[in-house]
Structures are given as C-alpha cells and as structure tokens.
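Two entries, shown back to back:
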Amino acid sequence: MINVGLGQAEGIDTLNTITSVLSQCEQQPILVHGNTLRNDQGDVIGNMAFITDMTEHKKALALAGEVQKSLLPQTKPNVHGLDIAGKNISCDEIGGDYYDYIWRRVDPHAPFSVIVGDIAGHGVDAALFMTTARSFLRMRASQPEKISDIVTDMNRHLTLDVFDAGRFMTLFYYELNQFSKGVKTDDDVTLVVIKLEH
C-alpha cells in the first residue's frame, strides 16, 4: 500500500501526486481511497490518500473462482429420456450460486435429482457458505431417505452455523423417479419438488 500524506493547502499537489502514482501502476488493479485528517478540536489538518495494489487480491479471487467452478457439475448426466444442461455465470469472480445433479449411477432405477441454490449476498462469504451447503447436501443426499428429510436436516445444520450472521439460502430440490420395470404409464413417473425461499 502506498500512503500519500498531504497538507491542507496542497490540493493541486494532491492531484498531481495521485496522478503520478497511478501512472506508475498502469495495468495493475488498484484501490484508491482517501481520508481527511483532523486534530483534537476537529479542525482539518490535512488529507491522506491510500493507493493499494490489488494484484494479489485479484489473483486470490481468480483462484477461488476456479476452485468454486470445479465444485459444479463438469459433465451433464446421461439419464434415459432426459436432455439435461446446466451453466453458472457469476456476476463476480465468486459467489453463492449453486446447482448440482444427484443420482446413483450404479443403480439404474434410482431417482434423479436437480438442486439449484442461491446464497444471500455476493463474494467470499457467500462462496464459503455455498461450499458448506453443497458438502452437507451431498453427504446427506447419499443416505436413502425422502428429500423432505434431507432438506430439513440440511436446514437444521446450516442454521446452527449461520443464524447469528443473518445468512440464508434459497434452495430448489427436484427429484424425478421415472425408472420402473415393465410398461410405462403416467402412474410410473413420480415428481417430488421442495422449494425454500428467502
């Protein structure tokens, strides 16, 4: 971080100093902010400008974005009779958007599920919450129970972690069970949907 201290009557010099420092930064991401300095009586005694090089911060966010994208489905599932696609386009490098497919590939008669979630907020905290929610949901969904039980347990678990922070998640959990033996009729397809909103 570069600190530029300036006296009260140095307004033109302030602009020249900041312009000079910015020209040295060229294509590097930077954060510029300033503050007015006051004495004990509240009189203005000067100004301080802060210029922070954000290069390492941007690299860390880019890496976090790559890790988060790796947690999303990398291939579309091959489920007989369904054409499935999904894509996540974040407005920031990282965030709280989430989707997933859950099905037991080894059991051709197992239900197929699609989960879409959204964590309140943006940035690192939402991304961390999303990762926690994803981990718990995948672990809990691997146990054969009704999705209402899975989502209730997930909600109970996450509430303990984030209640005081005021964080929450919107979740859509869709389960399709269309795999039965013999002739298919309308009665063979079971659709279960649970939707939680904030």
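entry 2 starts here
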Amino acid sequence: MSPARCVLASLALSALVLGGCSQQQADAFMRNINKSGGLKQTLHDLREPTQAEEIEIGDGVAETLLGARPLLDDPDLQRYVNAVGMWVAQQSKRPELPWHFGVNDSDHINAFAAPGGYIIVTKGMMKQLRNEAELAGVLGHEVAHVTQKHHLKALRKAAVVNLLSAGAARNCGKPACRTGAETFGTDQRSLRTRPRQGR
C-alpha cells in the first residue's frame, strides 16, 4: 500500500471508529473510496492549487470581504498603504504575486489576507498605528499568511474533514455517527467553552 493510501486509510478508519461505526461499515467505506479511481481523484482534489488557482480563490475571497465592507474613500491613504505594502511584498518569498493592498471602511481593529496576494487593513487598525514601521509590521504579518499559504492549507484540511465525514455518514446508517466537526473536535464554540479536565 502506498504511503498516501496508508495515511488516507488511517484517517478514514479513525473517523469511522470515533464516529461509532462498525468494522464492516469502515470496510465498505474503504471499498467505495477505492472504487473506480476514487482515491486517486480524492488525492488530486486535495492537491495544492496552482498559482493561477490560488489567485482565483483570492479574487473570490477579496470580493466577499469588499462586498461586506468597501474600501475607504481616501485615495491618498490607499496609495500610501499600497506603496508600503508593495515594498514589504517585494521582500517576501513570493514577490511575483499580483499583490493588492487596501484599507476598508470598518472601525474594527483588524487586517485580513486572502490567497493570491490580497491584503486588507481596516480603518480602525490604521487609527491605532503610530508610524510606518507599525504599518509595515501589520502588512508583513498578512503577507506571511499569503506566502506561507495558511488559507490554502486550512481549506485543504477542511476538505479532508468533509471527505471523511461524508464517507462516514454515507456508510454508517446509525444515528450515533457524528459529523467530521464533532469527530475531530473542530467545533470552535465548544473548544472555547469546554472546561479543562482534571483541574
């Protein structure tokens, strides 16, 4: 069995066992995933996107962010943030990306990065910054998210959880089966409110 197949089989079986499914149901799940190139297609779907695909994903994310809060109508500030941002991005490991920087019209103190080189800083964040060095620090932090592909890695992890929970649900007819989020403990609210054990 190849290393990729071993990893996927281990993850799938763990999800099914944790979800309360029987060994027969786990075997059925593995047969379904291997049928007619299913595993090969699944691994292809989980591959790292090309740079063009990354930029396309970023276009959609940026469009959503700007749909919620448009850019601040201050051309001088937008030019300044773009100039500082472009300088920071050119020092990064991925200077060839089509970087875009902007300030949105939100009073919240935050900054966002999207795949493909989109960086948005809020008006509230800009009010907190005391100098260009602090702006460069904030932009550098967001540029690092893009260059390290943190968003893309999170999307791939979510795809694995969805794949495993869909397979478990399809092959496990019991109401006791749990979703991927429950199985892997990714329900963020419960993580924040769950008291620590043993204290």
